[in-house]
């Protein structure tokens, strides 16, 4: 069955709606964009086989309807003077740059990445403040606001800042930027049009994105080597204390399903591959740090056998 939903420019939906898609593919399909911009998810089962996939399908549906969920949500992020919000990464709808983020639903499994840029002078004697405000409706019909406030100290020396770098956050935001460009390229090949801020993103080939990820990694490590490790011999490899596994994570990212060659350099999709890759990339964009980075490079732990 093929379902087509066309929104005319003159038609406005009075309240935000969320679309959850569970696609059981036995023939070619094309995952639409509406689930991503409404705060929903796309569950995809290529070559669906009931004895094998029915348990996974039922568990994902159960999790969707039982997890903590907010409806008709609006989100606003603010920061101190001298900083500004550069970009947002996640599954949401934003009508124009600077507008609030809209979600049909937002649940306990979702996360939003926010990238800030420096556009002025920060006083080292004052702290930098960040605030996110989420307005949503509970399942019982109550309208609530959840505010999250963060305070960060300002230092004139970048050396102090490097001590507080969060490697998982850095990898996560770089990966989400890459996934955004990638999904644009796939859907540009299928001649789909986006009615969101994504229309401003230019199409980039798989080769360009992989090259950009590699160059960004080199720039970060070379910048640290140039500015913070002058006492080491020129040929010695120097890594930031909190970014020692950074290169490993980026290599793992390049080798994930969206980037490892299931799509050619011209974004010509192998039959059935486009849906699986786009579903993977979009769901990644809404995951929290731990779940997202586990998909890039799984956590390792010691397995100790009990003594006989």
Walk me through the structure:
33% of the residues lie in helices and 20% in strands. With 308 residues, it is of the alpha+beta class. It folds into 2 domains: 69-156, Immunoglobulin-like, CATH 2.60.40.1670; 161-296, Sec23/Sec24 helical domain (Four Helix Bundle (Hemerythrin (Met), subunit A), Up-down Bundle), CATH 1.20.120.730. The strands form 3 sheets. Strands 5-3-7-8 form a 4-stranded antiparallel sheet, with no helix packed on it. Strands 1-2 form a two-stranded parallel ribbon. The radius of gyration is 21 Å and the shape is globular. Mean pLDDT is 75; it is low at 1-12, 181-202 and 263-272.
Please give the CATH class of the largest domain.
Answer: Mainly Alpha
The topology string of helices and strands comes to: EHEHEEEEEEHHHHHH
The tally of domains stands at 2
In percent terms, what proportion of residues is strand?
Answer: 15-25%
CATH topology of the largest domain: Four Helix Bundle (Hemerythrin (Met), subunit A)
Name the CATH homologous superfamily of the largest domain.
Sec23/Sec24 helical domain
Structural class designation: alpha+beta
Rg is 21 Å
Q: Give the proportion of residues in helices.
A: 25-40%
Largest sheet: 4 strands, antiparallel
**Span between N and C termini?**
57 Å
How would you describe the shape?
Answer: globular
Mean pLDDT, all residues: 75
Strand element count: 8
**Number of helical regions:** 8
| CATH architecture heading of the largest domain | Up-down Bundle
Order of strands, widest sheet? 5-3-7-8
Task: Give the low-pLDDT segments.
Answer: 1-12, 181-202, 263-272
